[in-house]
From TrEMBL:
The keyword Mitochondrion does not apply. It comes from the Bacteria. InterPro entries: BaxI_1-like. It holds the Pfam family BaxI_1. This is Bax inhibitor-1/YccA family protein. Keywords: Membrane, Transmembrane, Transmembrane helix. The keyword Transmembrane helix applies. The chain crosses the membrane at residues 48-70, 82-105, 112-132, 138-157, 169-190, 210-233, 245-264. Signal peptide: none annotated.
Amino acid sequence: MGMQSNNSSLRNMMKSQYREQQSMGAAYGQYGQMTQAPRVEAMRIDDVIVRTAALVGATFVAAMVTYSMVANGIATGDQAAISTAMTLGMVGMFIGLGVIIFSMFKPITNPIVAFVYAGGQGLLLGGVSAIFEQQYPGIVVNALVGTVMVFGGMLALYKFRILKNSPMFAKVMIGAGFGIFGLMMVNLGASMFGMNLGLFAGPTGDVSTLQWIIAIGITLWAAFSFILDFDMIEQSAAAGAPKKYAWAGAFGLTAGLIFLYWNLLRLLSYFQR
């Protein structure tokens, strides 16, 4: 398959569609010899849009829970509320990590799993965003607006074919994606043992040249990765993929939006220091 997505769930979606078509052919015979035509409702791009909106909405609602807890806790000095919100955020982080790893092996076509991921990430987003907002007033709104603008801009560039997917583009993006994932896992593992590798700057303090390069590079990757996701969804809809794969497309776009927001939040905090 020449065109691939950097998003593992979307990439596995295409592989699963091919396997389903093969098993369907074995069960019903080749075209012209079928005893009964299989009836599978096809996925549409509108299905992906509706499901993406639902997942983003679930993320926002969950984020407001921990955002309010941390914001009120900071305002009133209620450390218990802040601690509870941070605990919920940590649970959300591990839920999100588990679902992402699972999506590397199997596309997320179960709406329950998709909503669990969205809710877990929302709990983490809300608490951390409230801390950033307290330190850099207005940064959350700027990050949200930036996320929407980047997503809309990449969609326009893809729609008008200014940017296109290609085998080489896909290979570069997928390779870079694995590198970024590995970098983040190494950094996470080191931080759990109290080690600071200096790859990402903390909420305050100076920012090194290396940290600037990493932050800008990952943010650009997050933006351009939407081109691959749009292409994969368009291909799947054109090929008549089963409707359940609309959840895989929605999950991929939601994960991409969340990842882009995280990186814009970090990058904006660097600019405000």
